[in-house]
Amino acid sequence: MDRTYWFQSRKAAQAVTLSGTRRNPGPDNLARHPARSRAVRCCSGIALLALAACSGGGGSSGTLSTNVMTPRNVAVLLPLTGPNASLGNEMLAAARLALSRPVSNGTPVTAPLPQVDAHDTAGPGGAVAAVQAALAAGDGILLGPLTSADTSQIAPVALQGGVPVIAFTSDTAQKRPGIWVFGITPQQQVDRLVAAAAAEGRHQFAAFLPDNPLGHALGDALIVSCQKAGLAPPQIAYHLNTPEAIASGLASLAAYDSRVAAANGQAAAPASDLPSDLAAALSSAPKADTPSSSGSNAPTETVQAGSTPASNATAPAAQALSAPPFDALLLGDLGLSLKNVIDGLKANQVSTSQVRLMGPGLWSAFATKLGSIAGAWYAAPDPANRKAFVQAFAIQMHRAPRPLADLAYDAGALASSVHASSDGKGYPAEILTRSHGFSGVDGLFTLLPDGSTTRDLAIFEVQSGGGAHIVNPGASHAPIASGAT
User: Fold this and answer.
1) Pairing relation of β-strands 297-299 and 328-331?
2) CA-CA distance, 23 to 30, in Å (whole number)?
3) Farthest-apart Cα atoms in the chain, separation
């Protein structure tokens, strides 16, 4: 059956009226779309809807007629074909694993486990066709899609259908009531870092970030985090990915010129504040001698405004400078550009003994190479929390899961827990957004009414010999599902 017939069949099915008592889904059920209510009453359309969903959405066979009668089943929207099929099928396997395990929260559960109804967002019609198939099948909650673009496309359809969405994107621009951004976001990481740094007495925050989407996401997150924590607005500088731009940008952010001038006993007023003849006279006047570390009187070269410390290395070598105008610095670079940033920090005498360096969770992938910034922090999930999940996944799939499979497992376990708490009546917002949250393989998380997700990530500290260890594990409580958490 092609998709044209499917939509014609759905429309025809919705036009049929069934006599008898209407099933009341209850006030907590998010699935209240009028079209679906009519479909529930359409006995003559059930077979057509079930067949259409099977042919168009990749759902599990033998369950769709039940889906139409009760919105308890879980739709998983992922790329199951195409270039991202490997990742999509791995995440689907993780979601199935979570939904196959009974919830063990101490409360007897009489409702049957929800079934997985898989829909391919890379198939004909893309993500929109996938979400339409899920709505036609009567699924009660949507896990996925994977990307920000797909989330943007399916959101209006899902909201109109009254079905909650747990999207795997980390793009917070997609959040809204009923559409939860479930990926690990820069905001979550920065919130955790700022709270931990403030707790140890850091008050002046700054950021030196690449001029790219990740850099701007981190910068925006730092502004929000400082505002929420009642801290002063942070200084934020963005740089192009060249050694020259990194060196000059760090010199400006770290106030290198004025710190050198202060060390030389000179006024730190900007040259633009002086009359041109006085500025010229000062620039040609002999510089004050500064004792070197060996005790001889050697002249110390002063950095002129706009120059980089790389060409004036004598000043920092001769004497230590005062601390830069911040005590916590957020970085966002990776790879070679991060090496250039680290070199720039040394040249500008930004020391980890004075400044708490912080970075994105992506640092965890190469923490063994970060020994030169020992003491730096990043926020990421505690790998100890996922050991049981990795074990269970490996037994089933004969290999370890990729990190994104964690999201699918936690989303599946979340759906299973909420379904059990509602006694099989659906996925009400008040349970999805319960204040004490849920605990998953990526740590404690809470869905907020506005569509955002908070995560209590662990804080890792880089070691001098490479690698990192946890200095603050974050909060935790009983897992949301038995077995793999």
Assistant:
1) unpaired
2) 15
3) 102
Token digits for 399?
Answer: 């290999």
Q: How is residue 227 written in tokens? A: 């505002």
pLDDT tens-digit series, residues 21-50: 333 333 333 333 444 433 333 333 333 333
Phi/psi zone of residue 467: left (φ > 0), alpha (ψ -120 to 50 degrees), beta?
left
Q: Report pTM.
A: 0.74
Taken in order 328, 333, 334, 336, is the CA torsion positive or negative?
Answer: negative
SS (H, E, C) 331-378: ECCCHHHHHHHHHHHHHCCCCCCCCEEEECHHHHHHHHHCHHHCCCEE
Give one word for 82, left, alpha or beta, with left for phi > 0 and alpha for psi -120 to 50: left
Q: What is the CATH number of domain 3-183+384-454?
A: 3.40.50.2300
Q: Name the DSSP class of 231.
A: P
Per the DSSP assignment, residues forming a β-bridge with 441 are none
389 sits in which H/E element: helix 387-397
Which class in CATH covers the domain with range 187-264+303-380? alpha beta
- Give phi and psi for 36, each to the nearest 5: -70, -35
179 membership: H or E segment, kind and range: strand 179-181
Q: Report the SS3 class of residue 33.
A: coil
340 is written with which tokens?
Answer: 């250039």
Contact 341, 369 (CB under 8 A): no
User: What is the location of CATH 3.40.50.2300 in the chain?
Assistant: 3-183+384-454, 187-264+303-380
**377 with 359: CB under 8 angstroms?**
yes
Mean pLDDT (the chain, rounded):
79
79-88 contacts at long range (C-beta below 8 A, 24 or more positions apart): 79/120, 79/121, 79/122, 79/146, 80/118, 80/120, 80/121, 80/122, 80/123, 81/120, 81/122, 81/123, 82/122, 84/122, 84/146, 85/122, 87/146, 87/402, 87/404, 88/120, 88/121, 88/122, 88/146
- Quote the DSSP letter at residue 441: T
Residues 6 or more apart in contact with residue 54 via CB below 8 angstroms: 61, 64
- How far, in Å, CA of 59 to CA of 85, rounded? 16
Altogether, the residues listed in the chain come to a count of 485
pLDDT in tens, 76-121: 999 999 999 999 999 999 999 999 987 755 555 666 889 999 999 9
Measured from the Cβ of residue 313, the count of other Cβ atoms closer than 10 Å reads 12
Between CA 372 and CA 245 the distance in angstroms is: 21
The angle formed by the CA atoms of residues 285, 289 and 292, to the nearest 5 degrees, is 150
